[in-house]
Amino acid sequence: MAVQPIRLFGDPVLRQRAVEVDSFDRELRQIVTDLTDTMLAAPGAGLAAPQIGVGLRVFTWNVHGEVGHLVNPSLTLSDETQDGAEGCLSLPELTYDCLRALSVIATGFDMHGEPQRIEASELLARAMQHETDHLDGILFIDKLDTDARKAAMKEIRESEWFGLEKPTVRVSPHSTFGLGR
């Protein structure tokens, strides 16, 4: 088992866009193994490489007993939406309702470079959107409306795990379906 420390809000790696994977080699397979082991140990519904300090476009998921991974993901979002509770391993004990697409079609590759196409809805779709956002340096709190984002930041500042750094909250460049800014 290769459980890695999970980077917390305030770590600059969480705000950087991860780079495309161009080598499907032993190192990538080890990263996927580390991500999976760390996610399962946490436990979480998903984990993106930047959350363990690796700036590559890869994430894992564990939803309803289905464990998987996707490298260099691209998502096509449905027009239908879902609003529900969302949390993040990089923001411990923080949960807020977050608007997401109800379903997605995710394309990318597995760790061996084989093309993948996954049709997902509800919780798996939410996890895939959340983890893909991580790869773009976006956190779920960036997708919250102004009042919820302010409440989340207050909760973060008052948390035991929050460090001395004063990170900035960015506004998502992706559609928030008319909610949030």
Automatic annotation (TrEMBL):
Binding residue positions for Fe cation: 88, 130, 134
Pfam families noted in UniProt: Pep_deformylase (PF01327)
An individual GO BP term: translation
Database matches in InterPro entries: Peptide_deformylase (IPR023635), Peptide_deformylase_sf (IPR036821)
Record note on cofactor: Binds 1 Fe(2+) ion.
Reactions the enzyme catalyzes: N-terminal N-formyl-L-methionyl-[peptide] + H2O = N-terminal L-methionyl-[peptide] + formate
Keywords in alphabetical order: Hydrolase, Iron, Metal-binding, Protein biosynthesis
Chain ranges passing through the membrane: none
Active-site residues (renumbered): 131
Required cofactor(s): Fe(2+)
One GO MF term attached to the UniProt entry: metal ion binding
Record EC number: 3.5.1.88
Similarity field: Belongs to the polypeptide deformylase family.
Entry-linked PANTHER family: PEPTIDE DEFORMYLASE, PEPTIDE DEFORMYLASE, MITOCHONDRIAL
Protein role: Removes the formyl group from the N-terminal Met of newly synthesized proteins. Requires at least a dipeptide for an efficient rate of reaction. N-terminal L-methionine is a prerequisite for activity but the enzyme has broad specificity at other positions.
Name listed for the protein in its UniProt record: Peptide deformylase
Organism of this sequence: Nocardioides exalbidus
The organism's taxonomic lineage, starting at the top: Bacteria, Bacillati, Actinomycetota, Actinomycetes, Propionibacteriales
Annotated gene: def
